[in-house]
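Q: what sequence does this backbone want?
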């Protein structure tokens, strides 16, 4: 199971203390303590080779190193190296109230989460030796949404995973009972030199209104194309209405995405069946797959 939401507690390093030291010059004591070094910042960085926040499930609090203290002969303390925490590409960072601070959606994109404290002044040239300044301490919510282009959704057992396997060449578990798929999974698909990332999802509940189990819908956030699958030749129109309402209720941005409606399992009936607005396919037998790929690739290039 992927962990996609974690609270992080970050504490940047404190600045080093200013040095307190003296040398004697003709019976006078003269201060020569150097300034303290800067405390370490904590930086969050988008990493393309991570796919979940699981590594933060045990350790959520990070404390960066303090700057070095200033020393005699006006020597500055060492600045502490920043602490870089890699998060998966596609992680949004929010403050504790839930307000978005940054969406890390570009590879290697960084966010300076907490700033290290400045070093204190040393007693060089008669100033007073100061303590280092404290580093910032903050809480963040990191919320990962899979960076995928195309999402497959639908009621239980309609053939979503079979479609996913057919388009991607994967062999994920398919079975003739509902709730076979319990977690999101994704794969890279290729068609005529175009690549797209496809997302398979757990089933949508058949009742109206959103339930906690449907939180997986947040992973549609980055998609540009959604495939709504039905296998019910009589009720496909009412089914997609429920599903459309749910995804738009969950995330208003779904309104502007390109949605294709698929009628799956047409091998079971007359393959010439036409229902207005639906693309007839048989994910199991591969019928309609190239037409679908063509539509997906065109919609992605238009977007
Ligand atoms: N005849 C026929 N059966 C299909 C087709 N696509 C899928 N099935 C069958 O439908 C059943 C469910 O397929 P899945 O791909 O597991 O369906 P799903 O929507 O992912 O199911 P959940 O993950 O439980 O929601 C399996 O028995 C598949 O073999 C199709 O095009 N034709
Ligand atoms: Mg499935």
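A:
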């Amino acid at each position: 199971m992927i962990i996609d939401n974690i609270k992080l507690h970050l504490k940047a390093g404190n600045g080093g203390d200013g040095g307190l030291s003296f040398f004697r010059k003709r019976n006078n004591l003269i201060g020569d303590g150097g300034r303290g070094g800067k405390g370490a910042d904590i930086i969050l960085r988008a990493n393309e080779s991570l796919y979940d926040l699981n590594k933060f499930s045990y350790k959520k609090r990070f404390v960066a190193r303090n700057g070095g203290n200033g020393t005699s002969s006006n020597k500055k303390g060492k600045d502490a190296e920043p602490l870089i925490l890699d998060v998966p590409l596609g992680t949004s960072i929010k403050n504790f109230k839930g307000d978005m601070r940054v969406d890390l959606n570009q590879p290697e994109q960084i966010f300076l989460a907490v700033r290290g404290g400045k070093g204190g002044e040393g007693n060089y040239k008669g100033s007073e030796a100061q303590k280092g300044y404290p580093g910032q301490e903050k809480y963040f919510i990191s919320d990962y949404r899979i960076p995928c282009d195309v999402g497959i959704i639908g009621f239980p057992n309609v053939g979503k995973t079979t479609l996913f396997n057919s388009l991607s060449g994967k062999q994920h578990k398919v079975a003739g009972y509902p709730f076979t798929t319990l977690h999101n999974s994704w794969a890279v698909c290729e068609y005529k030199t175009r690549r797209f990332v496809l997302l398979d999802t757990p089933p949508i509940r058949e009742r109206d209104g959103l339930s906690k189990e449907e939180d997986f819908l947040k992973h549609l956030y980055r998609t540009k194309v959604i495939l709504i699958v039905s296998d019910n030749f009589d009720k496909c129109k009412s089914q997609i209405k429920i599903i459309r309402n749910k995804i738009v209720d969950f995330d208003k941005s779904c309104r502007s995405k390109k949605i294709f409606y698929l009628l799956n399992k047409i091998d079971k009936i007359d393959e010439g069946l036409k229902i207005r607005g639906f693309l007839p396919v048989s994910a199991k037998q591969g019928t309609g797959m190239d037409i679908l790929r063509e539509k997906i690739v065109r919609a992605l290039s238009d977007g």
